[in-house]
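Hi everyone,

Forwarding the result from last night's run.
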Amino acid sequence: MNNGKENILGTEKIGKLIGIFAIPCIISMLVNSLYNIVDQIFIGWGVGMLGNGATNVVFPFSVIALAISLMFGDGASSYLSLKLGEKNKEEASKGVFNGLCGCAIVAIVFTILALLFLPQLLNFFGCTDELRSYATDYGRIITFGLFFVMLATSMGSIIRADGSPKYSMISMVLGAVLNIILDPILIFKFHMGVEGAAWATVISQFITFLINLFYLKKFKTVSLVKENRKWSWTVLKKVVFLGISSFITQICIVFVISISNNLLGKYGAGSQYGKEIPIAVLGIVVKVSQILNSIVLGLAIGAQPIYGYNYGAKKLDRVKQTLKIVLTISVIITTLALLLFQLIPDKLILLFGSGDANYIEFACLTFRIYLMLVICNGIQIPAGIFFQAIGKSSRSAVLSLSRQILFLLPAMIILSSIFGLMGVLYAGPVADGLSFLLSVCFLRQEIKNLNKWHSTIENEDDEEEIVNVSNRGVVITISREYGSGGRYVGRLVAEKMGIGFYDKKIVKQLSKELGFLEEYIENIEQKREDLDSFNNGYYAGLSNADVLYLKEAEIIKDLAKSSCVIVGRCADYVLKEKENVIKIFIYSRMEDKIKRATKYYGVSKKEASSVINKINKLRRKHYKFYTGDDWDDKSHYDLCINSDILGVEKTADLICDFIKEKINDKSDDC
């Protein structure tokens, strides 16, 4: 991967790189936000406050549709990128086909259910009696068009992964521009009210759908010919697994909207503002803040490849410089926004139509209170993306979910029970402040440790050498439990057979070709955390872990041209199409694994059991993610052996005898 792009990531000025990568991301994020905000503006002027309240009640339908479409779209795009990296275009095509078919089927089911249960769902989302007629009219039309919206969104994700982000962005922009044109025509000229706004949204997104549909005929990387249009539950499950994080993130928003609407209606009823004003106003304020967040998020995502490459290459000064620039720009943006929200909230709310004194008063309160600490988003959002880019999945996932789930919802429920309607508003700065403090704690610790690398868990210092590489036409892959002695067994087998042995030598080759430090590679390869899946959604392409896996696969296929022993790294799966590959799985009892871990790997006896279980769990998840199979499923292997029964020396002898017998059997068959 010594290409121009990587050289730029490691050498070009940071400011220029951020501009190159961040601007397209910011534009895409803004376009997504504009659909909702534009409807609010025209509905506010054409219908009034009740119209805005109704659209806020219906908004969860769009979020659920977005969650489903991103699950299939982001999942299929990740599957496409991985399979293309494996040079398996047929499987990549199946991923695209199954992702789009899965989205279409679920879209039809969701649309039917939403239309059938529209009144009940509106109640769940906090609809009041005065909003009901508007919400029903708007919701029925929006729901009718969900099929096209969902497929358009899924196709957009796949088109970006196919290497055409500009095409995807143009289709989105054209849809947004058309929505802006149609809104005033249908609302004001044809006097269609909220129905006009709904039709404007549906028509514009249908056009985006048609533009994206046209692209399917001219894919750059795969072909959706008849042979590749094969339904596969296995592929679909993999696509869904890859995209599930995007689904969960969006569904969390649905719960936040539903609970906040219900709380606003409940406590607003006993105030001077009534039920409808709080629901309408908070919906507008949240969507205005989403415009701000989309800019910050686009900036942070744009910096993601810069973080990832330079962190892997241990160019720590560039990592810190990038983080500093991103945080500085983000804080400047959020500070300017804070000044607007505090100084001219009355002017901002008037963009969305006029209202009575209570409406204006509550809008000013909401802007000033709910967004009181919006400046904190300039730290919290970039921090989550930063940790994702450097492979700290747990911290990234916690930061991504912290504001909405960990802090905002509990704060709304608790504070509203004490302070009523104002408690719902004060939950905003409480959540922003707590997520900010958490982000700062994580960032400070990471900056302190940035120049320190975690030592590899499995610490074996012996050098690997290729001895008497012959062309006997056999490759042995060794999968092994941590502490089973599998690596040493593999080395003995290679020595006894006079063939190459590859484990850490692969790390050295990866370091040479990718520019990543060996210790960084050892820290992230063959390991997948539980929370890694929550980070897939923000990646525009492949993560560093994906890049490592794909490059390892290339190296393994090259090494397998000659007889050798290859340890771990899904080698049995990578070489599944190659003849004369013998797949070995080595395991042992826990007490024996503990002995080896304490004696050879420097693990304390007290912690040995948990360390062994953790590493085996990481290997299992890594294997499952990239192969779709179970790492310890014995049916995948030609020989599974307990190294404790005979000891490592005789285990190696047994494997050699097994290999000779298997080779002889194949010779006899010929």
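The longest strand covers residues 581-587.

Cheers,
N.
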